[in-house]
Efflux RND transporter periplasmic adaptor subunit (Shewanella aestuarii), 362 residues
Amino acid sequence: MDRFNQCKKMVVPLFCLAVLVGCTGEEEEEQQKEQEKFAVPVEITLVEKGNVSSFYSTTATLEAPEEAHVMTRISGIIETINVEEGARVTKGQVLAVIDAKRQQYDFNRSQAEVQIIEQELNRLRKMNNKEFISQDTMAKLEYNLQAAIAQRDLAQLQVEESRITSPIDGVIATRFVKQGNMVKEFDELFYVVNQDQLHGIVHLPEQQLPSLKLGQQASIIYQHSAAQNGGQQAIQAKVLRISPVVDPQSGTFKVTLAVPNTDAKLKSGMFTRVELKYDTHNDVITIPYNALISQDDSQAVYVINNTIAERRVVNLGYREDNKVEITSGVSLGEQIVIRGQQNLKDQSLVEVITPLNIAAVK
């Protein structure tokens, strides 16, 4: 009897445990079936063909290839100022005038001396008794005439230099004087800069030298408040000059870019980002970069097969903005997930929340 009771006590817990394990297994199977029935919402696009370029990104400082520090060649008081900062000027335009009364008096005196010597020479040449005129006297007068003419021309030049003119076409960047100021010889009066075309100065590592050539395309990217895409705007430039030597201290070489600036959006001295275009692959398979999933040092995408998402490892080529070249892993026209792929695993059931109009895309 005691033995029966002991057996009974052992059998009952084992039976309860078996029932509990069976219930737990059934619950897990039901949960797994529910998960299999659940479809993950995703957004998809088609694998297409396109052109993708390879770029090298760096920075550049913009410089004006034409600039002039306008100085005075004479001393005097500023009589008039004809331009202000920001004004566009042309080559030869009068920017300011210096009081040149003293220089004008010197010119008048030099002109009078020239006329006196010329009259004396003409009188001696017209004399009939030329044997009374020594050759030495005539030679001295001719030399004196040449010296007087040079002095007169110098005085005339100083009068002309009282009119300060612009040596280039451009814009008045800085005005250093005011009307009525006294200026001395070689004082700077204006700073004129031509920004219709700027130069972007880039210093690249010596390893990039074989990849560059004259005329190569580049993009100048700068911040602009009116632009979209986070305030960034791009202007197309090209390689104008490549330095033939490498700086031994920095290991870089200088590259000069020609940057068009007819709309005057760029300014000399600006710091910009540069993307040099090295190569372009035409008519290759491309997908959006945001479709990629990075895992274990590999890149993968989810390809839609009916309502199932298949995970495929892909190999990448060039990347340009949000477009990336795919060298293997997907085929043209296949549907890939571009949003919601973080919630997927291989062979997951999916629901396309934005169906593609495939005919319209083609």
In short: The helical segments are 2-37, 101-126, 135-160, 358-361. The chain has four domains: 39-55+282-361, 57-65+195-278, 66-97+165-194, 100-161. The domain at 57-65+195-278 is CATH 2.40.30.170 (Elongation Factor Tu (Ef-tu); domain 3). The chain has four helices and 21 strands.
